[in-house]
Amino acid sequence: MVKLTTPIVLNNLMKKIYLLSDNFDYSKMITYDAGPGYANNMNWAHDSLRNIHSYIENVNIIDTRLSEGECAGLEKFINTNKDTIFVLTVTDPDREHCIDHWYYDFLSRVKYYKNVFFLSKYIPTEFVKDLDDSTNKEKVVFIPYPFVDRYHISNNLSNRRKKIIVSGSTEQYLYPHRYKFYHHVRKSINPWLRSKVAILQHPDYPDIGRRLKHHIIGSKYVEYLSRFMFMLIAPSKYELELLKYTECAYARCVPLGMVPKSFSEEVNKFFLLIDFENINRSIKSIFSIPVSELNDLANGYYLALSKERNPDLLNRKLEDFLKPRGSM
Predict the structure, then answer these.
(1) What is the pLDDT of residues 157-175, one digit of tens each?
(2) Cys bridge to 267: 51, 71, 115, 263, which one at CB 3.0-4.6 A?
(3) Please, what is the angle between helix 102-110 and helix 126-134, to 10°?
(4) Contact, 147 vs 249, CB < 8 A?
(5) Virtual torsion, Cα 225, 227, 232, 234, nearest 10 deg
(6) How many other C-beta atoms can be found within 10 angstroms of the C-beta atom of residue 198?
(7) Is pTM, for the whole model, over 0.90?
């Protein structure tokens, strides 16, 4: 490991700028795990990467959707501006999906630069854990997705469909628990079970050139979720806190399924766990809970998550992480 000895002067630590690709069409994104929507939710000003020269006194936070050429240009800029802090964001940690991608090659090339740090939206696993371990756990900070409720949906469950809404990809490799639940219901010969579950197909990813399968995305997606009492949420194979956990809270649904590793005990206590080895029994038990108790769970989950994923709190966590590293 390269020894980090030269101090970095943390000028304007509170002043952050989120820099976006000039080559990527963010308008085609179906979610806000990156791009201007993510920056807005974190209360960060954002600008195009081509204007980076205007922000050498700021903390430069970099979006994940850079082109290969932009990565090469940014690497040169980082090397030239050694007193500027660069925080490179990371989303997908899966080695199989990212091992040959230019952005991850770029992260690996710049990881020992004294002015480079990494913001992981998930707890470090796979590629991100390798990144963290190889830099002596001094470069990576976990900052979960912020909770910013722009929907203000009613918290009364009484007028909703007493069903479990299941949405998202059912790819077995990445989402084994969602896959298991989905196929258990689809193959079930129990009409009661099938009547208690609604399924929304994944819309796919038009931002990477795929055809959009339906338009229930963004605010329409959260509104759609709010028609149901329950929402199945299960993490990826690494037990990561997907955006669906906050979207469930925005929709004021009762969360059920499996909690991610990153949740606190305070959030966990409002979550209804499913035994994925005995799905039928779990669902029957859940559907016997009085609506008044379900309302308490949905409201408690909303309040706990809104408190712990508050963007001001997350920004303080980022600042607290960077401050002592200014003298590395």
Answers:
(1) 999 999 999 999 999 999 9
(2) 263
(3) 20
(4) yes
(5) 10
(6) 17
(7) yes
Neighbouring-strand partners of residue 164: 197, 230
Q: Which residues contact 302 (CB under 8 A, 6 or more apart)?
A: 155, 249, 252
Same fold yes or no, 16-146+311-327 and 161-308: yes
Give the burial class of 324: count Cβ atoms within 10 A of its Cβ; 0-12 exposed, 13-18 middle, 19 or more buried. Answer: exposed
Cα–Cα distance measured from residue 149 to residue 181, given in angstroms and rounded to the nearest whole number: 28
Write down the domain spans for the chain: 16-146+311-327, 161-308
Q: What average pLDDT does this structure show over 26-48? A: 96
Q: Is 84 exposed, middle or buried (0-12, 13-18, 19+ CB in 10 A)?
A: buried
Fold of 16-146+311-327: Rossmann fold (3.40.50)
Averaged confidence pLDDT in the chain: 92
Angstrom distance (rounded) from CA 110 to CA 321: 19
Show the tokens assigned to 88. Answer: 């490179």
161-308: in CATH 3.40.50.2000: yes
- The amino acid at residue 92 is D
Report d(CA 100, CA 111) in Å as an integer.
17
- Given a contact cutoff of 8 angstroms between Cβ atoms, the answer to whether 58 and 37 are in contact is no
State residue 186 phi and psi, 5-degree precision: -65, -35
d(Cα 120, Cα 142) in Å, to the nearest integer?
5
pLDDT digits (tens, 9 = 90+) for 96-141: 777 789 999 999 999 999 999 999 999 999 999 999 999 999 999 9
